[in-house]
Amino acid sequence: LITRFDEHGIREYVSPSSIGILGLEPEDLIGRSIFSGMAEDTEFLVRQATERLGSGPGHEKFLIRHVKPDGEEVWLETAMSRLPASHPAQAPRVVAITRDVSRHKRAQDELDLLANTDDLTRLANRRFFNARFEAMVTAANRSMTPLSLLMIDADRFKLFNDTYGHAAGDDCLRAIAQVVRSTVIRPGDVCARYGGEEVAVLLAATDAKAAHAIAESIRVGVEEIGLEHGRNPPSNRATISVGLATLTPGQDLVTTSQALFKRADEALYNAKAAGRNRVETAGS
Q: pLDDT tens across 229-241, in order?
């Protein structure tokens, strides 16, 4: 799809391929702004690109999601270039070449999912968790909203493996992961296998009270599975301990991922020391 824009970002020319790529006739687009009909997040991205185009080397590329009039969702890659003026008085114009990269985007998303997923539990892996952890701490500090971290550990898991075997241990970890996944359902939150029998959960825009309720739901859910663990008294069932810490921008000194993790890990240790099968909150 080829489009030419005037100096105000208004479409002057649209090639016929707009029908297949955008689901719109050229005449429906000519005379309309590049930002017309865009979602807020998409418009922000495109505005940034057009601003860079005006002050930079004259070439920009971006990827956006577009929903056609029939509801079909496609991913579009657009390369924009400033056109050279034929004389000094001519206003700058821009030409854009857009192509549908939906198939490639889906394939890349599948590869990314495989690269970021733990094979055993199907939760996110530690590499993905670490990357998101830093980004979510930065976002929480910028927006002045709380971020809570749960560190979850299967109680006496080595004894479980020694008693029932590693295959049963794998099944136990899958069962715990399923409880976590079914409890933490918001798209912006992160559930990851942190290592061994340990699971980490990041809860965006969630204060300590709300995070404790979620942690308790996970704890109860695991206990209610009723998985036999004869070397885990007093319940003799598989249970978990949870350490909880919350970053509250502007109210405490915890402002980094390292500090938040340390507090959650200490709370987990306290939960173990207090008898296991419980949720402990840092600083409580």
A: 999 999 999 999 9
